[in-house]
Amino acid sequence: MTVNKWTAAEVARKVIDNEELFILDVRNHDAFEDWKIEGHKFEYLNIPYFELLDGVEEILPKLPTDKEVLVVCAKEGSSVMVAEMLSEAGREVAYLEGGMKSWSSYLEPIKVSDLENGGELYQFVRLGKGCLSYMVISEGEAAIIDAVRFTDVFTNFAKEKGVEIKHVFDTHLHADHISGGRHIAANTGATYYLPPKDATEVVFDYTPLTEGLNVKIGASQIDVNALYSPGHTIGSTSFVIDNQFLLTGDILFIDSIGRPDLAGLAEDWVGDLRETLYSRYRELAEDLVVLPAHFMIIDELNEDGTVARRLGDLFKENHGLNIEDEAEFRRTVTDNLPPQPNAYEQIRQVNMGKITPNNDEQTEMEIGPNRCAVR
Amino acid sequence: MNITKTLDAKGLACPMPIVKTKKAMDTINSGEVLEVLLTDKGALNDITAWAKSGGHTVLEQKTEEDVLYFYIQKG
């Protein structure tokens, strides 16, 4: 039988199109438990490759013959070996090109909406890491919000669309992934904005992103309005785009809220988080569509693969927005927090420009899920 | 520690370090120690997990100048 090679893009399509897939993950158990390819209708079998060196006969009965089987490992090598063994045993299987490493880096651009006068809003979904970046396009110009480190994806997309990147924003100093923001700005001549309260230690020049900053994209003047919304970090800033969309950064997600402990002490910022979620956001129009900087679980994806929900619906359904008692809220976001993201302190140093690891080291730092939320 | 055999798997990528370690392990007797030299950092957790599942004991593990050293006693 033949061994097929799948790209991360093909696997992403299976996730978004809600298709079935059987994943044979041959990484060790700890790695699999920590982080895997999530799909609505995916089934899994986790057998480390080093337990299959003597043969795959024992696992054959556990592999379906009526479903596509994808063998996955960390970088590719072991999955190729196991896929070839399965092929020799008469099974048709595929392996994931580049393994979890390539899954972690893949971005799928999905259009969220058309804007006035031919404008467009795109969400770049990084399925393997749960990161969401945004591009607003209007009449030859573009703004990017919370770009991840794969700068080519954004600059190539802008080229395809025939637009010039003019503004690049980070809603806050990220702790779970490495920002591509200032590099895109440097390569394109765009302005790079960062909230000054998050930027006290950065070693590069930036334009302060503060409450009330208003940027117009293109001749039709698509509005990008900044709204100070601290809590995840002290500088965290949201955006209202075209009076229709609320980009919440890491403050408010679909099924969870931001955690206040990644850049300092949770106790210091829990009051800010409460104020943002229970006062500032309450003053906004309920029809705004929330677009967060992350998703945590695959159920947060809509049918078209986007991650977006009406603010009014989140006020009703999001547990973190419905804790009336302030003391209980405080406990929820400070006690029993999930483990912190992999290498989050180093990642903050990279985003401050203090250290410049090479590409392999950056990949290593970003391994694993994002873990920016509390639920 | 008496080292019975040394395997130099430097420069090899996954899964070869483990494949070679297993083969080398098959050539020594129970209680004897295999020294393995590696540069693939991904093998760090894998070697430990593989040894455990095979009933072997990792007596010592150290890293010197980007080379990982394992001392594995056959079970």
TrEMBL record, chain A:
Q: What is this protein called?
A: MBL fold metallo-hydrolase
Q: Which organism is it from?
A: Aliibacillus thermotolerans
PROSITE patterns named in the record: RHODANESE_3
Regions that span the bilayer: none
Residue ranges annotated for the Rhodanese domain, each copy included: 17-112
> Which InterPro entries does the record associate with it?
Metallo-B-lactamas, Mito_Persulfide_Diox, POD-like_MBL-fold, Rhodanese-like_dom, Rhodanese-like_dom_sf, RibonucZ/Hydroxyglut_hydro
Q: Which SUPFAM superfamilies match?
A: Metallo-hydrolase/oxidoreductase (SSF56281), Rhodanese/Cell cycle control phosphatase (SSF52821)
Q: Which Gene3D superfamilies match?
A: Rhodanese-like domain (3.40.250.10), Ribonuclease Z/Hydroxyacylglutathione hydrolase-like (3.60.15.10)
UniProtKB/TrEMBL annotation, chain B:
Alphabetized InterPro entries for the sequence: TusA-like, TusA-like_sf
What Pfam families does the annotation carry?
Answer: TusA
This protein's source sits in the domain of life called Bacteria
Q: Which residues form a coiled coil?
A: none
Record domain UPF0033: where: 7-31
**Listed PROSITE patterns:** UPF0033
SUPFAM superfamilies on file: SirA-like
Gene3D superfamilies per UniProt: TusA-like domain
Which family, according to UniProt?
Answer: Belongs to the sulfur carrier protein TusA family.
UniProt protein name: Sulfurtransferase TusA family protein
